[in-house]
Structures are given as C-alpha cells and as structure tokens.
C-alpha cells in the first residue's frame, strides 16, 4: 500500500496473530521520516515503552528539546549564502569531468527505464581478513571505511575498464549532539570520486582516498539533491545521476537485540526484491567480522554473477592487506580454480596434427592417392590432382633453378585462374613463401609491398605487367615468370614433374609458407609471416570441423590478398575435395553469387557476413556449410542462414593463420533480438586469453583484449622487430 505523502500517516504498524502464543509485528515507514540511525532509536524507545507499560509505569521517555521541524528550519537558515556556495563549489570541483555512467559488464542490456527490481547475495569476510583490513587501515592512517572504499573502487575499475570511479555512500549527518537521539531523516548521500588512471600502489591509493573522503565529509551538509541540481549531470531514466554504485559501512550505535519482558523475540527475514542502484555493498561489523549483503539490480545482473563478484572482492581485499606496495593492476581477482579454468581449462585444445609436414605435402598425398580426382574447376576448365601436381612441380623446379631457397619471398600477381593455384603450389614446393599482390590495388601500395617484401622472383600473367610498378621503381632486379606465357610455359614444360625433395632443399615445416600484408587501416601495411606448421594445423582442423571430404565442392571466394583464400585452398586440396574458382563478376553479392553457388552445387563456402546478408537462403540449394568470417556477424544474418544451412562464425586475425576460434550456430539458437553472435572457442592447438590493459586475465564476462597463442601464431612482421 502506497503512502499518501500529503495526508499521512507515514508510519504504519500491524500486529498479526498467527496462533495462541505467536504474533508478528509489522512496522512500515516511509524513508522520508526515518533513516538507519533512527531505526535503532525506534527499537530503544519501543523497548523502554513496552517495559514500562507492562509494569504499569508511566511513559519513561523524556520530552525532546528539539523536533525535526526545528532542525529543518535551522538547516535552511544556516545553509545559504556563502556557506552554501562554498559547499557547492567543492562538489563542482570534486566531480568535474567525472563519467556519467559506470559501465560494468552486465548479463543483460540496460533497460531504458529502471524497474528497481533487485536481489541480494550475502557477503561475509572472515575474522582474519577483517583484522588484516583494520591493521592495513591503521598503518596508513585511514579508517576501515576508506580502505573498503579503495578496494571496492579497484574492483569496479578492473571490471569496467574505467579508471575514474564515483561511488555513493550514506552519512549519518548527525554532527550535533542535540539531534543524536532524534528520529527523522538526517542521512545524506555523498558522491566519492576515486581516480586510478596512474595505476597507483595500494598505499598511494589509500592516501588519495583518505584526502578525497575527508574533503567530502567536510562538505556533507548540502543535501545530495541540491548537489545534483547544481551540477546538472546528464539525466537518464535508465540510471541514477552521478553514481550507480554504493558502499555503506554501518557504524550506527549498537542498540542490542530487541528484548521485551515476558516475550521471546526473533527477527523475520525479508527477501530483497528491490535495488535503487546497480550495486550496493552494505557491510556491518559483528563479533569481529564484516558481513552484510551485495544488493544488485536484477534487470542487469544474475545472482551467479554477483556471487562471483563478491568472491573477487574478498580475494582483492586480502591481497591489499598482504602487500600495500603492490600496484593495483597486479592485485589478483581470481580464485585458483577460476584462474585454472580460464588459463588451462578453456584452452585444453591439444590435438594431434602433422606438425612436421609441409602444407603442400598434404596435397601431394591426395594427388598420389587419387590422381584422377578433380582438384580445381575454373569456368569450363577442370584439372585433376595428378595434373595440378605435375604442373606445380615443373614450376617449382623452375624456381629452384632460379635460386629460390627456404624463406625467400616470391611475389604472385594473377587473376583468378588455374594458374593462380599452380603458382601458389609451385612457390611452396620450391621452398619459397608466396606474397600475393592484388592487381586491383593502387600502384603506390603495390610498389610498397614489392619494395618491403624484396621478392626473389615475380609470377604473373600476360596483361598484368602494365598494372604492376616497374621493377626498377621498386628497386628490384628480379626474374619475372608469365604463368600463361608461351615462352615461359615452354621452358617450364621441360622441367621435371616429380615432387621436389624438401630435405634436399633444407625445407622444414618451420619455414615460411606465405607473407600477407595487413590492410594498413591503422598505419603502414605490415607483412605477416606465416609458417607451414600453422597452416597445416588450420587445414587439418577445418577439414574435420567442417566435415570436408572428397565429395565436397569448396568455393574459392576470397581475394588472393586476403588470408581466407589460403584457408579455402588448403581445406580443399588437402582433403581431396574440389576447389571451385570463378570470375569476379560471378562472385558479386546477391543473385549472381547465389546462381553460381546453385549451378556448381557448392557444399562449403566462406563469406563475409555483409555478403551473406545480401543473398537469399533458398531451400532449393544444396545444404551448405557456410563459414561467416572477416567481419562481425549480425544476429539477423546468423538466424536467417542457420535455418537451412550449417553455419559457423569464425574469428581470427592474419597474425594467427586465418582462424583462431569458431562457433557453430545451431538452427533456432540465435534470433534477431540476440545481442551478439559468439565467436566461440579456440580451434585445435590454439590458446585464447582475455586480458586487461595490464596483461592480467579478466574474470568471466568482463571485457578485455584477446591474446592468441599456439600453433597458428605467425613468426612476426617482415622487417620489423
């Protein structure tokens, strides 16, 4: 039942009879007439009155010298003019530039309007930790509250990634003895700001928090509502102004348990179902140990998340108490079991793969086993595994004759064609690392890539040479082979068709397979050096994961200058499948691409989600395995495509050999209202770590940067330390 603030009353009591000797007393009051301190006074006065009346004695309570109205009138008279201005000026300075919102990681998006629905989990600190925190406070001249505020702010900063934290706290605001025994709403709220940008030590942070808190205490008279009105922060129905997280250390005078003569009394536990703020940590010291609750907005958080958060706080506080010289970034948050799960359990990806084999040896095994099987289809041309292997071998022997050695770079600039695949395999078999040059790139970019990669040879096609910068412009004097040229073709035809022997070339799986340049969107393009062993791991993993076999038909969609192209090529040619090439026009997003997929009965395709978004998912098509890669996949695209096809969302930078994680999107598991499509777990022999700015592992659900380890990690950037 709502209170009528105009008519009152603002306090109600009911005595409920449950049995002959059992009753429940319910007292409900509006916060406008009472606060936490007042509750203790109310218990004292009820005890005194009941005890006296049960013994036939008169009211024992002395008359109050002052009423709450007297205090309110005095405050209005005193808190004005220069006094008010000085206090407001302090809060202006204290909160200037503070963030409007503490963006903690949540289980659900913040609703447009707060519902104030909430829950609470219990927080209990051991007597030993409580003693240690008191000792830490004493050593650094701070109070227990200040130490808890420092620890709470560190945790919030680590979880949010923000270094400027504002936390609300209630203060009794009963500095005068005349009002200590008065029931009423005296409590005020202070917005305490803690700045952690310079990664201070625990000791330095305690000193900062002490100064900041004492300054706030000295200016606590102005009501919080007036501070908000004066500062005019951005207002939103979705969160409270100035701060969204509170800390309360209950240090009101102890009143003891309610004890009435002739009665046996016990409190009735109340379930917390409301929350005025995102988080409120409330603690009291009882019998030498801190305990209380962590109240949370259930619109945002699950109870399990808050349980973990409470655990992280205890670990952090214990570390603070153990060594105040530590930088706050180095304070642990994770329990041993959490750390084990994040660093080891989630990365248990060890699997056998041919780590000592070269990527082209996997292709050679397919060519030997099924030489008549179709390896490549381009337009109306098809090439068998045996023929493709022989042509690649002749090119390889030609390159070896030109002096190509392991780790030498060989540039290749060709259009989509069978010659493109012959060129790649020939370079690999010769021991070189191919450097793809997209003929559509600007001349300046091609010139830079040629100069930076310093290739020992260049493979291209008739008609491509005029698109390439002159070798002289790039400062190079290298042989140029035309893969479709009559003269070069005749010379290559005279070469041996057997597989070059890697051992004779000094070639191992730790040598480079290719160097692909990044887009340069954040600066100068960098050449990423990827090795054979990482590529072999990728090929074997994707063949198994995507169920590729000799009956599969894989589209080579990506440009040769993008690393997805080597994934498509290796997945096909290392499994005995058929690789389908097509002219650029047929790969245009929309009907052109869909017609080609249907005509060639493609079973496996890797597409950027933006391309997939413009294509239909016609059920007449062969059920495909579609890998979304190269950019973020929207829930709408994932939901639509997963209805009729097997869909994977793949993630991986060029520096991790194309793909580091995959997530299979089951039909119906994603809807358009889903926030994001997961990138999944690491592929075989790959480790994934989510770290903060100080390279510390973050708890589950907390934002951080992805760090990748394992077989696929590139050797480095060409010509860069």
From TrEMBL:
Q: Where is the AMP-dependent synthetase/ligase domain?
A: 363-718
Q: Which Pfam families does UniProt cross-reference here?
A: AMP-binding, Condensation
Question: What is a single cellular component term in the Gene Ontology annotation?
Answer: enterobactin synthetase complex
Q: Name one GO molecular function term.
A: phosphopantetheine binding
Q: Which stretches make up the Condensation domain?
A: 2-343
- Entries under InterPro entries matching the protein: AA_adenyl_dom, AMP-binding_CS, AMP-dep_synth/lig_dom, Condensation_dom
Q: Which GO terms describe its biological process?
A: amino acid activation for nonribosomal peptide biosynthetic process; enterobactin biosynthetic process
Q: Which CDD domains match?
A: LCL_NRPS-like
Mind telling me which NCBIfam families this protein's record contains?
AA-adenyl-dom
Q: What is this protein called?
A: Amino acid adenylation domain-containing protein
Could you read off the lineage of the organism from its UniProt record? Answer: Bacteria, Pseudomonadati, Pseudomonadota, Betaproteobacteria, Burkholderiales
């Amino acid at each position: 039942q709502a209170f009528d603030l105009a008519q009152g009353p603002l306090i109600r009591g009911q005595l409920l009879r449950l049995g002959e000797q059992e009753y429940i007393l319910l007292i409900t009051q509006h916060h406008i007439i009472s606060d936490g301190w007042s509750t203790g006074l109310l218990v004292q006065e009820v005890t005194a009155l009941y005890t006296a009346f049960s013994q036939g004695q008169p009211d024992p309570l002395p008359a109050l010298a002052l009423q709450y109205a007297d205090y309110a009138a005095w405050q209005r008279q005193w808190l004005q003019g220069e006094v008010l201005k000085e206090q407001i000026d302090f809060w202006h300075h204290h909160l200037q530039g503070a963030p409007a919102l503490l963006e903690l990681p949540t289980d659900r998006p913040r609703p447009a309007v707060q519902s104030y629905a909430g829950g609470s989990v219990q927080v209990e600190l051991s007597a030993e930790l409580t003693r240690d925190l008191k000792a830490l406070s004493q050593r650094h001249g701070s109070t227990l509250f200040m130490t808890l505020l420092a620890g709470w702010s560190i945790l919030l900063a680590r979880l949010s990634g923000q270094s400027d934290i504002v936390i609300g706290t209630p203060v009794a605001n009963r500095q005068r003895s005349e009002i200590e025994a008065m029931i009423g709403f005296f409590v005020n709220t202070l917005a305490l700001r803690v700045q952690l940008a310079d990664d201070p030590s625990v000791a330095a942070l305690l000193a900062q928090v002490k100064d900041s808190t004492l300054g706030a205490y000295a200016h606590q008279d102005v009501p919080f509502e007036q501070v908000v009105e004066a500062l005019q922060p951005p207002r939103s129905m979705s969160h409270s102004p100035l701060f969204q997280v509170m800390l309360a250390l209950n240090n009101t005078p102890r009143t003891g348990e309610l004890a009435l003569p002739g009665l046996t009394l016990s409190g009735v536990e109340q379930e917390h179902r409301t929350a005025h703020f995102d988080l409120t940590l409330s603690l009291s010291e009882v019998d030498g140990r801190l305990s209380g609750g962590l109240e949370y907005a259930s619109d945002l958080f699950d109870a399990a998340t808050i349980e973990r958060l409470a655990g992280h706080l205890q670990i952090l506080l214990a570390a603070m108490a153990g060594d105040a010289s530590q930088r706050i970034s180095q304070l642990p948050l994770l329990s041993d079991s959490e750390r084990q799960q994040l660093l080891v359990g989630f990365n248990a990806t060890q699997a056998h793969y041919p780590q000592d084999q070269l990527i082209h040896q996997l292709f050679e095994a397919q060519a030997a086993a099924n030489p008549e099987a179709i390896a490549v289809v381009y337009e109306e041309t098809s090439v068998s595994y045996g023929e493709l292997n022989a042509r690649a071998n002749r090119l390889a022997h030609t390159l070896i004759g030109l002096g190509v050695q392991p780790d030498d770079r060989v540039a290749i600039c060709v259009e989509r064609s069978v010659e493109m695949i012959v060129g790649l395999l020939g370079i690999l078999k010769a021991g070189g690392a191919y450097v793809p040059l997209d003929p559509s790139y600007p001349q300046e970019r091609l010139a830079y890539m040629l100069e930076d990669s310093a290739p020992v040879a260049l493979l291209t096609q008739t008609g491509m040479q005029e698109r390439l910068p002159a070798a002289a412009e790039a400062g190079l004097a290298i042989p140029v082979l035309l893969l479709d040229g009559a003269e070069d073709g005749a010379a290559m035809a005279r070469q041996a068709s057997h597989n070059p022997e890697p051992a004779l070339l000094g070639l191992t799986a730790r040598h480079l397979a290719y160097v692909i340049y990044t887009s340069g969107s954040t600066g100068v393009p960098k050449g990423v050096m990827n090795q054979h062993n990482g590529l072999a791991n990728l090929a074997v993993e994707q063949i198994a994961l995507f169920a590729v076999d000799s009956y599969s038909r894989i589209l080579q969609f990506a440009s040769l200058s993008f690393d997805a192209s080597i994934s498509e090529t290796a997945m096909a040619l290392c499994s005995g499948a058929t690789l389908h090439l097509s002219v650029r026009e047929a790969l245009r997003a929309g009907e052109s691409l869909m017609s080609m997929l249907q005509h060639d009965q493609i079973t496996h395709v890797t597409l950027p989600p933006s391309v997939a978004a413009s294509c239909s998912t016609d059920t007449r098509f062969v059920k495909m395995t579609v890998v979304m890669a190269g950019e973020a996949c929207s829930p709408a695209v994932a939901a639509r495509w997963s209805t009729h096809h097997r869909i994977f969302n793949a993630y991986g930078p060029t520096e991790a050999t194309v793909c580091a994680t995959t997530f299979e999107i089951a039909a119906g598991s994603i809807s358009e209202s889903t926030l994001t499509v997961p990138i999944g777990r690491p592929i075989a022999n790959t480790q994934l770590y989510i770290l903060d700015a100080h390279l510390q592992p973050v708890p589950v659900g907390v934002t951080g940067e992805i760090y990748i380890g394992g077989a696929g990690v590139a050797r480095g950037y060409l010509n860069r330390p």
